[in-house]
Amino acid sequence: MPDFINLRTLKPPSVETVTLAARQPLPASTSTITISEDQEAGGSESGSTDGNGTVLAPIDNGFGAWSFLVAAFFVEAIVWGFPNSFGVFLASYLNDPRYALQKDSSSLLPLVGTLSSGIMYCSGPVIHTLTGRRPYFRRPLLWFGTFLCWASLFGASYATKVNQLVVLQGVLYAVGGSFLYHPCISYMSEWFVARRGLANGVMFAGTGAGGLLLPLILPPLLNKFGASSTLRILSIAILCMLVPLLPFVKGRLPESRVHGPNSRATERTWMKNKVFWIVLIANTIQGFAYFIPIIWLPTFATELHINSTESSLAIALLNGGSVCGRVAMGVLSDRLDPWLLGSFTLLSTSLATFVLWGVLSRNLAGLLAYGLAYGGLAGGWSSLWTGFVRPIAKDDPTLSTYIFGLLMLSRGLGNIVSTPISTSLSQGYPTDAMNGQTGFGVAGGRFEKMIIYVGTCFVGAAVVALAGWGMEKSRPRRT
């Protein structure tokens, strides 16, 4: 090898050589895309490139981001609207002798709704672990989930046994819904960075939108066609709405070259972060109370001698209020301290529960006022998750998605245990209560313990959130 290079004898490479080199594939070790969120935020308007020179769509802007968000909103509305409206089906099943006269029907039929939503909440960590390591599984899961949602409801329309409804309408639908819902959360981390709170709020608002419309649509269908035919109509409608949406539910990064990096979600060092545990505790306490009014407001309305149409309106207003609350809290979480926002929503929800439900809900007007206030205040809590998770996950979208799954798991536990807790609280109620004079006294005080429990849980969650705010304020700021 010569000791020196004569620069005068060097010739530039030919055009053919450069072109040939550009066409050569990169080594496998360089195929993982490693653009950080900070890098991407700087090029959100004009887009950026991955490690292979591919031009990526812009983040927080552009047709790709907004079309994904609109599609994810409707997917969430479709997937979650059914479990949130199961009380309408439950009333139909309990009035149908085919199901009501079967053994243990009174305890098994309510389990259908609990399972359908509880499994979707609790499956988050499992699915996010799978798709975090194998991102290319997300697209097949979306299509498979669509098929399962259709097949579960279509099959349930032919069910003649209560346990068949539990398996089909409860478990199988929840599995399909999980395959549809959780990839949307993962994709959102790719499309939105600076506006992730807004995106989170809009996507979660789909839950309220579905819960707003279905309680108004289902009663006429059930009255005219019955539960079996309504399930067939609903299954076909779900299939026809989801299939055109799925092409827009896709990632920003090319999945063929994303190989699931070993992120901090795998290393678990983030679990030593005290802020994470405070968020998880506050979220769990909130979840233990959040679902109880959703479950019991129709029964409360019945005790006030309100007909089924008007009682459905209370649930519709609750879900409608949650649409506004989730979008508003999502937007605010991009600009304000999520701990203060969370403390405000939790304390306000507690106050609304004690005053509007406990004192003023002695007629339809008071009940509707509480449903609207509760949906707007309590429903906005989940939109704050992005603000809580951002300082923990830093620029790691995989870790951010995984922590979202854990928060959903803790909320799912609250969803599952809400029914036995609230059922126990509704029993053994005092007989000397002021019947009808306040919400506490409705049905001889049947709901008094329940109202006190819900309000106290929200106060407890607010105290934990305030402790988290104090811890964040006491931390030294990095310069």
Summary keywords:
single chain, mainly alpha, Growth Hormone, Chain: A, 2 strands, 70% helix, 1% strand, globular
Plain-language structure description:
It is globular, with a radius of gyration of 25 Å. A hairpin with a 5-residue loop joins strand 1 and strand 2. The chain has 479 residues and is mostly helical. The two termini are 50 Å apart. The N terminus is likely disordered. It has 2 domains: 204 residues, Growth Hormone, Chain: A, CATH 1.20.1250; 217 residues, Growth Hormone, Chain: A (Up-down Bundle), CATH 1.20.1250. The chain has 18 helices and 2 strands. Helix 13 packs parallel to helix 15. A two-stranded antiparallel sheet has the order 1-2. Its main location: membrane. Keywords: Membrane, Transmembrane, Transmembrane helix.
